Amino acid sequence: MQSLLSLRFLAIGDSLTAGFTNYGLSFHPYSIQLTNLFSSLNIPITVDQQGHCGDHVVPSMVKRLEKLLSNKDKSYYDWIIILGGANDLSYNKKGVDIFNQGLKLMYNMVLENTNQNTKLAVMTVIENAHYSPEHRQDKERQTLNTMIRNFAETYEDKTRICLIDLDKNIPYHSLKDVNERNAIWDDLVHLKAAGYDQMGKIIFGEISKKINQ
């Protein structure tokens, strides 16, 4: 990967973007590891970390993104990373509504109202310990993730969009090794610092592929 000028990232989301850990006594956002990994390749980045604990996609996060973009030049951000939906799901919002009334609006906001050089990274929602994969509420999460994947896979300009499938890369229920699970999971919903570092590594891997294309 060749050295580039400093890249500007916007990371918008909820407590999983904020890096909520140790029951809120400390924070370790994935942006720390993301910055370190790019820096190790002599690619400086700055991350506008906009993770708000408890935030819902509908309507709060949509409005936050709109305000953030309206206050910046259209070419200000090189990458915009969006992760949301966990809190909406916890309030029994249907996956299809979270996507159509929230995430899809945010994705289109980025793709239609920024410079063509601005790239969008969309992330699936990780599972949690509250609900098994067979539970009705987790089925809504799975529906939401399918819609996120489909949006990325069917968007025409593949150079502008990147799917980061956290759901497949940071499991809970299928992770049978208790020591491995305890190393990354903090409570029933959030991650430990090592888990957020794993998020950063996954994001780095997918975005660096796009940069190299």
From TrEMBL:
<dbReference type="Pfam" id="PF13472">
    <property type="entry name" value="Lipase_GDSL_2"/>
</dbReference>
<dbReference type="InterPro" id="IPR036514">
    <property type="entry name" value="SGNH_hydro_sf"/>
</dbReference>
<dbReference type="GO" id="GO:0004622">
    <property type="term" value="F:phosphatidylcholine lysophospholipase activity"/>
</dbReference>
<feature type="domain" description="SGNH hydrolase-type esterase">
    <location>
        <begin position="11"/>
        <end position="197"/>
    </location>
</feature>
<protein>
    <recommendedName>
        <fullName>SGNH hydrolase-type esterase domain-containing protein</fullName>
    </recommendedName>
</protein>
<dbReference type="InterPro" id="IPR051532">
    <property type="entry name" value="Ester_Hydrolysis_Enzymes"/>
</dbReference>
<dbReference type="InterPro" id="IPR013830">
    <property type="entry name" value="SGNH_hydro"/>
</dbReference>
